[in-house]
Amino acid sequence: MKALQIILAIFILALASSSAFASDPSPLQDFCVADPKGSVSVDGSVCKGAKLAQADDFFFSGLHIRKNTSNSVGSAVTPVNFAQIPGLNTLGISMVRIDYAPKGGLNPPHTHPRATEILVVTEGTLHVGFVTSNPDNRLITKVLYPGDAFVFPEGLIHFQYNIGNSHAVAFAGLNSQNPGVITIANAVFGSKPSINANILAKAFNLDAKMVNDIRSSF
Ligand SMILES: *[C@@H]1O[C@H](CO)[C@@H](O)[C@H](O)[C@H]1NC(C)=O
């Protein structure tokens, strides 16, 4: 009985400590406006003096602008993270606007290594989904309409696909000042320098010629 209680206590402690590291670390001061010219390397950016902070350090304009989606995937992202708003430095949050071309605009399968995402559709109709980790690799999907929100858990591969006849728009919040993006196809087939074709052939069950054909488009 005693051993069971100890195991239970360790389990609860482990749960508590893992949830404490579920997003960027909490700030120890009101804010730390990023100083892009700071030369010291820290986990984030060096702060400029608190008294030098201005309203514009916490401001971004442009989320009303529809981006050009005439590209190979038919989507365009407007990022709003600490690179655009230096006042987001250390605050563990950021956002994006995503535009999707009619009939097939795709935000291709990708992951954010440092953030969970919550996405809300404001225009159009999106088929969205994510895949769970090994061993299940279960695909979880939903069709979203304006006003609908959907969550992509941290690190999992996800996508959004415009299945409507009109332009689509979504906004998303992410719990990191710098969520990062790994677009699966680009990382695997478009790395610089290239991953050895035999490695990709084996991993994707292709022959090396097919690997080279796929690579040539990235
Ligand atoms: C959108 O981008 C494409 C490809 O770069 C270009 O040909 C087109 O003129 C652009 N459209 C607008 C409205 O800027």
TrEMBL record:
> SUPFAM superfamilies recorded for this chain?
RmlC-like cupins (SSF51182)
UniProt-listed InterPro entries: Cupin_1 (IPR006045), Germin (IPR001929), Germin_Mn-BS (IPR019780), RmlC-like_jellyroll (IPR014710), RmlC_Cupin_sf (IPR011051)
Domain of life, source organism: Eukaryota
Q: Which cysteines are joined by disulfide bonds?
A: 32-47
**Residue numbers binding oxalate:** 107, 112, 117
Entry similarity comment: Belongs to the germin family.
Name by which UniProt lists this protein = Germin-like protein
What taxonomic lineage is listed for the species of origin?
Eukaryota, Viridiplantae, Streptophyta, Embryophyta, Tracheophyta
